[in-house]
Amino acid sequence: MVAVLLVLVAVALVVAVLGVATGRLPVDPLAEAVTSTPDHGLPDEPDAADVDTVRFDTAARGYAMRDVDAHLDALRETLAEREREAAELRGPQG
Asked: Per its UniProt record, what Gene3D superfamilies does this chain match (predicted)?
């Protein structure tokens, strides 16, 4: 019984490999990632506080979290500086 099962598994494996090798079973290892969360990107005109709400979906290929965090930190600082400069140019509000 075990020998029959092993033969069936071996035949199925050979058929699968031959199917992929001949192109009859399409395989795309770099297919587009499937998103499981709604887009939580930045609004059209973001401010510094919006950067903290950005969320990225992960995929099998993933992303370097430290790199993304570093870019978001830089973006937050740039937007905060622009907001400070705009507030200074507007002058006192009252």
From this structure: 6.10.250.660
DSSP letter at 40 equals B
Are 54 and 82 members of one domain? Answer: yes
Please report where in the chains the tokens 């990107």 appear, as a residue: 41
Task: Output the DSSP codes for the chain.
Answer: -HHHHHHHHHHHHHHHHHHHHHTSS---TTPPPPP-S--B---SS--HHHHTT-B----SS---HHHHHHHHHHHHHHHHHHHHHHHHHH----
Residue 76 structure tokens: 């937050």
pLDDT in tens, 20-30: 888 788 777 66
Tell how far CA 54 is from the center of its chain: 12
- pLDDT for the residue 83: 92
Q: Does one domain contain both 46 and 19?
A: no
Q: What domain range is 17 assigned to?
A: 1-29
